[in-house]
Design brief:
The protein is α/β, with parallel strands linked by helices and 328 residues long. The protein is 50% helix and 12% strand. Helix 8 runs antiparallel to helix 9 and helix 8 packs parallel to helix 12.
């Protein structure tokens, strides 16, 4: 298929970065934002307040009309995971029959639905896909080298989409393991909060390495239980993204964890303009794990800290006093 025009739904930092990325790949891009006034301001200044100092590519057109965006050959949904259903429900009026790529990393609370499942429920004639991997919006917007994974069940479509978005500095690797890519992105956010707690508490580099490694073991167990391929979980959208977000203050989830580790309450730590998806995913991830008997003590500890049922010190003590066992 030919993908000449791309709509990006969501004019936040990540949406703006992906709009620039698609334009850099030679596509004509429509960037949609909910707030008409904010959209006009960005269009006039050719710069997003979420990415100060980064110029919007001339191929990017701003709009507050979903009807304008719905004309594109493919669509990127770049909204928070917990807002995915509202946005796809609004798009249902246009009977989309094009690839719709989720670019959020999370699982819907209450329904336990993955992002592509929400797309399928709300847009039954669209072709769902997922884009995820180790990527910060600022890096992608500036054209710094980045590699991600783009997954859809149709290999030919995955190839067409990676071709449409790919450039010398943005390298999408295609996959048909949709669930594996979704699980990697959702689970690593929760584990990144744990890594931030370790750093904020000053527990040292050795503890951080141990936490990341044992957290990855939890991600693998969860992924395999839900049908993900191990090679996906050890790839860019799993291990790659985990390494990035567990080691950088640019990560919203890691920064939330650092604040918790330094003693801020969960409510205060979560305040601010930058959304940490892991704060919403932690409870649903642990609920899904418990229902299937999957051992995820680190993720469970994060969920308990976030809902104020366990203190940081108590969570650390509980993890450190678990019975010794074989690695795996």
């Amino acid at each position: 298929m030919s993908v000449d025009t791309i709509a990006v739904i969501g004019a936040g930092a990540w949406g703006t970065a992906l709009a620039n990325c698609a334009a850099r790949a030679g596509r004509t891009v429509t960037l949609w934002g909910r707030d008409a006034h904010a959209v006009r301001t960005i269009a006039e200044r050719r710069e997003s307040p979420r990415l100060p100092g980064i110029r919007l590519d001339t191929r990017v057109t701003l709009t507050a009309s979903l009807a304008d965006a719905a004309r594109a050959d493919a669509m990127l949904l770049v909204v928070p995971a917990q807002a995915m259903r509202d946005v796809t429900a609004a798009l249902a009026a246009f009977d989309l029959r094009v690839p719709v790529v989720a670019c959020a990393k999370g699982i819907e609370r209450g329904t336990q639905r993955f992002m592509t499942e929400i797309i399928t429920e709300c847009l039954p004639h669209a072709v769902p896909a997922i884009l995820s991997g180790p990527s910060f919006a600022d890096d992608v917007a500036r054209g710094l080298p980045t590699a991600v994974t783009l997954a859809t069940p149709d290999e030919d479509l995955a190839a067409a989409l990676t071709q449409a978005l790919g450039s010398a500095t943005f390298r999408p690797y295609r996959s048909t393991d949709v669930r594996g890519v979704e699980i990697g992105g959702a689970a690593k956010n929760v584990l990144a909060i744990a890594a931030g707690i370790v750093t904020g508490r000053g527990l040292g580099a050795s503890a951080a390495a141990a936490l990341t490694t044992r957290g990855f073991a939890e991600l693998i167990r969860f992924g395999r239980a839900f049908g993900a391929r191990v090679e996906t979980l050890t790839g860019l959208s799993g291990l790659g993204d985990l390494v990035l977000t567990c080691s950088s203050a640019q990560s919203r989830n890691f920064s939330l964890g650092v604040a918790l580790g330094k003693g801020l309450s969960a409510d205060l730590a979560a305040e601010g303009p930058k959304l940490a998806e892991g704060a919403f995913t932690a409870s649903v991830l642990t609920e899904m794990a418990a229902a299937r008997g999957i051992d995820m003590p680190i993720a469970a500890a994060v969920a308990a800290i976030l809902d104020n049922s366990l203190s940081v010190d108590a969570a650390i003590e509980a993890l450190l006093t678990r019975p010794f066992r074989a690695e795996g």
